[in-house]
């Protein structure tokens, strides 16, 4: 530890820390533009100048290491004058167009010019103008505003793993952009907007929509992938106009994936906002009373074992549990939340969780990925893997389709389950890498178990984790990566077939006469047998709604209070940011009303009462904003039964990242992204 004196106060900081970090530890605010805690040090902007005793001139505190006995002054006359001069230089070519800039009101340059700048500029010559660059359908560029801090360049290279941004030219002719003008090929591009300290990179869908002080801000959680990123939903009136990430070091750090960030326009398109019933083969609008009357009439006389329910991928845990209680009250054990047919053993929670924890990636030193592409399934988690790999502390291999670009080097071991047998038998060299690791990890993709031999794949992956030493009392290295934010919560709520109950395949094979679909759009509704009475409860008119006999309009995740469980088992609460459109209602309320119409007493009338019953059924729901961590003391694995490993190569579950869920399929922004990024010919510029 080094002893440093900051403005007369002596503190101790670790050896190798920068002067800027020492000043922050002492509670001193140091302005900066180029410096970012999660990026490499560039030392471009010089805004962080401080005075060091006996130094002939101010030093850039972000790039200067501390030394024992150093005395630093952060607010001397020299420092104030230096910062004013730096700010004056930064503003020489800046267009000063704050009134029309989307960054206005939350701009670092505005704030620091006010706090640390002078009273005016002395520059009277013409300003430099720079042509705007095309970076895709999500990022709007006004490059004349760029102060060349290179945060975007470092983020793209170091965090996103796509070194497509850089600087060309020198001196006054230097410009930031893609070397060949094209759309950025990353699922994390929206984070460039967050880290840009000026208005050079802004959100194209949010352009000229609102000012930050006009918005109502609500903390919530992203459910469009299973990471469960902490987010802030900004609304104005009845619309979501922006979604931003919040800092959660254990989950998403401060990053967010593009699909969850930019698909918000899908909340106002293709919405179900009133009940519908099918009459004479056609759907017509109806009242809630009419809809429940039709449900009661059609389901009267159907035995409980001929009624089934399917929960979707974005459903909150309360709604899934409420529907489960309704089915139990009707005498049905035909429940399933695995629309993809995944052979998930729900008898033990660690059979289907990311047990190492997302932050546990920072401790891993060897990783095997089975049947998954984390870059498409959980881009922020993939960035965390890349961070660990870039530190030189992680060796990675994967089993699945060849040629995956994971943004980091990963050895390809093969395409099918035969590789798992080879690893277990010691016939693959990477098995020794895993055995020699201190913290080995196995990530099993959900798509790897959504196949006929899924139970055998699950059992083999667990056995492999046990064989290489990934299951110990101190470390749990078996991890399943789910795809969407409602999948784990439904499993925790017990939405799986009960004794003698049917799964989705059994229900679609004619095992039920009435089928209740709760936001279930992830399977082919055309497979539902003719004559089956179908109730669809959801918020978008997607695949399953067209097959329904009764449609009950529900609420999307920003429109209700709900509990979601991420892939690592972390229980989080989503908050109500705006109300559902027109006659749509929260899903648990709809289920409660349906129970009353069907004569089933569900014994809860409030959300708090429902949550208490949910927590009583599974105590994991009592630990909010946390997870039950620990090693593996019982290494008994899931049973494969009579199923054996097949020969078919693993297929990835997400073929189109941009339209993988019901919200993004309704989004025009995501449709444009899908058109651009799935086109085999490069998109060079906006047309």
Automatic annotation (TrEMBL):
Provide the protein name.
NADH-quinone oxidoreductase
Record's cofactor remark: Binds 1 [2Fe-2S] cluster per subunit.
Superkingdom classification of source: Bacteria
- The answer to whether UniProt assigns keyword Ribonucleoprotein to this entry is no
The record's InterPro entries line, in alphabetical order, gives: 2Fe-2S_ferredoxin-like_sf, 2Fe-2S_ferredoxin-type, Mopterin_OxRdtase, Mopterin_OxRdtase_4Fe-4S_dom, NADH_UbQ_OxRdtase_75kDa_su_CS, NADH_UbQ_OxRdtase_ferredoxin, NADH_UbQ_OxRdtase_Gsu, NADH_UbQ_OxRdtase_Gsu_4Fe4S-bd
Q: What is the lineage of its organism?
A: Bacteria, Pseudomonadati, Pseudomonadota, Alphaproteobacteria, Acetobacterales
Keywords in alphabetical order, please: 2Fe-2S, 4Fe-4S, Iron, Iron-sulfur, Metal-binding, NAD, Oxidoreductase, Quinone, Translocase
One annotated GO molecular function is:
2 iron, 2 sulfur cluster binding
* CDD domains given in the database record: fer2 (cd00207), MopB_Res-Cmplx1_Nad11 (cd02773)
Reported function: NDH-1 shuttles electrons from NADH, via FMN and iron-sulfur (Fe-S) centers, to quinones in the respiratory chain. Couples the redox reaction to proton translocation (for every two electrons transferred, four hydrogen ions are translocated across the cytoplasmic membrane), and thus conserves the redox energy in a proton gradient.
**Keyword Secreted assigned:** no
Q: Supply the Pfam families for this chain.
A: Fer2_4 (PF13510), Fer4_NDSU1 (PF22151), Fer4_Nqo3 (PF22117), Molybdopterin (PF00384), NADH-G_4Fe-4S_3 (PF10588), NADH_dhqG_C (PF09326)
Protein's GO biological process: ATP synthesis coupled electron transport
Cofactor names: [2Fe-2S] cluster; [4Fe-4S] cluster
Q: In the Enzyme Commission scheme, what number(s) does this protein have?
A: 7.1.1.-
